[in-house]
Amino acid sequence: MYRIVTRTPLNPSVTKIEVEAPYVAAKAQPGQFIILRVDEDGERVPFTISDSDPVKGTVSIIFQVVGGSTEKLNHVPEGGYIADFAGPLGNPTETEGIKKVCIVGGGVGNAIAYPVAKKFHQIGAEVHCVIGFKNKDIIILEDEFRAASDRLIVMTDDGSYGMKGNVTAGLEILLKENSDYDEVITIGPMIMMKFVSLMTKQYGVKTVASMAPIMIDGTGMCGGCRVTVGGETKFACVDGPEFDGHLIDYDEAMDRMRTYFDFERKAYDEACNLFKQEVR
Amino acid sequence: MPNMSLKKNPMPSQEPDVRNNNFEEVALGYTEEMALDEAARCLNCKNHPCVSGCPVGINIPGFIQKIASGDFEGAYGIISEDSALPAICGRVCPQESQCEKNCVRGIKGEPVGIGRLERFAADTHMKSGAAPAERPASNGHRIAVIGSGPSGLTCAGDLARKGYEVTIFEALHTPGGVLVYGIPEFRLPKAIVRREIEGLKALGVKIETNMIIGKTLSVDELLGDMGFEAVFIGSGAGLPQFMHIPGENLRGVLSANEFLTRINLMGAFKEGSATPVMHAAKTIVVGGGNVAMDAARCAKRLGADVTVVYRRSEAELPARKEEVEHAKEEGIVFSLLCNPVEILAGEGTKQVCGARCIRMELGEPDASGRRRPVEIPGSEFVIDADCVIMALGTSPNPLIKSTTEGLEVSRRGGIVADEDGRSSKARVYAGGDAVTGSATVILAMGAGKKAAAAIDRDIMGAE
How far apart are CA B43 and CA B41, in angstroms? Predict the structure, then answer.
């Protein structure tokens, strides 16, 4: 059992939890992920690590309630326990030799983009960030990003805060002004990463995208996380989760995400109904 | 007076049309009368050729004579001297190519049902509620075992019985390895695996789940700061192989590992499970091994019409005969001498709608001695399906190799180990599928046993 040490709501549907997992905390690096199960009958769900503290022995993840398992996770209180927490899995973000980077995050993906920005900032790289949200009310980690960035553009779809538009609009401004990025890193919804990659390709800037497909074990055993990269099959769990954004077959990856869509919808509704009954 | 019947006592089983709708155990086990009658078929012959066919050398005539005399607990005791997991091996061992293959009774008629008798002795022991073995006094030596499948459990059990303090590190959330994530409930009930694991815990074996060696901890950390004197790697062969044909990453194509893990480890076949699994109308399973049979029979139980596609002929099917027969009885169709060349998607979608296959014929024998399947030009045809499961075999997971300096591996990714399980790295031993690539439960057990003996000799010899 793994204790939830702190629990911090970041916006109405996004929450940060800090979990006691000393072995994972000792090894965790930005870009890696963990797999957890909320309870004994729970499914195995991957989450990218958003922060870790090897001294305290804790690992933080940020999650959005999107299905049955995240709904259940959202109901575990501070001081409560979850059944399993395994990791760190996948490869850390490659930082070597990178002096100037642009990080493009979307929605809850910014929770994962932030530790990457922080890491580059710590090693002395020049860090530019474009972070996008639907609207003002769901913006997360703005202050943290500001502290880790040399330049920050906040975008909202509806223009209720920062600039109006998609992250690609903000990215294009930066690409026009900066022809010397070593790399663009993009983390967020697959459709967003697809369009970020299409744009950076025009500008000829190397791009890395962080994939979070369906998986069970996270160690290479199930093969559920197959992604076609440059015509080759890769396992996101052991070969990734970060891949060359210009080579990923996003359309295939997006379609594969729909494999269990009906089931997940139903599980979410059932979990919601259960908690509603408890409240009554 | 021996029972000279030419036939084995048949195994009572669930009816095919009933069992292909449920996940309960297919084979129900011998009754006492059947066991006594079958045990009486053993001639207790002088050379006991059966024993030489057993990878762990169980005293087979010995335990069968005990059953024949009605001393079932005595029979269990004899099996336990050599096998750590009798209830499991009695169910999943390929006896027809091991002990029973050598049985004198098999020359004229059917061999003695050794596996069925082994299972009877183990199940009877379990039902008797006999107290688990007591924890022996510690000898103060600490050993780490990586993986809780058949080789790891066996190695841990043997060392614990000698007084070693053993900790098993398991990557998944539940111990048992392939016994829980791979082999379905209807062939090996998970309660039996749990019971064997409880037995090990009673011997003092600690099990740490969620520990991915190579990620959470390294082998060198186990040998260093963690203070283990030796490490046994029994991490299995978990990496699924694919065909690398067009369409293989479409929605609806999955590895047998993924399909079986969802069903067996995560219990996705149960109503209300939190883990989803594909409920297809028509499923193709590619491959002819035991894993392919398991996947096909699971898909059938989830309501699909199932076709097994295998590139050689029936005689070459690597699966146990019994599994193939069970699958056929349950209504699974076999499309033999046939191989997929492309997975097809529905028009305008990326969802599987079938597989384009090509007919094969057998040519000259290849390196494995089996006749090489050769494509027949122009023989392509399409099998409709909304799910394709790839059961083409697995290879050892590279996670440990890639994080352990000085650990030699073969070209195929298996850890290089000698007869006794010693690897190229000091104090590191390995066995089971992690060394051989995918093989059988009993061979993995045998390797775990040998390594335990070698660890004991090496540590005691150094004292």
Answer: 6
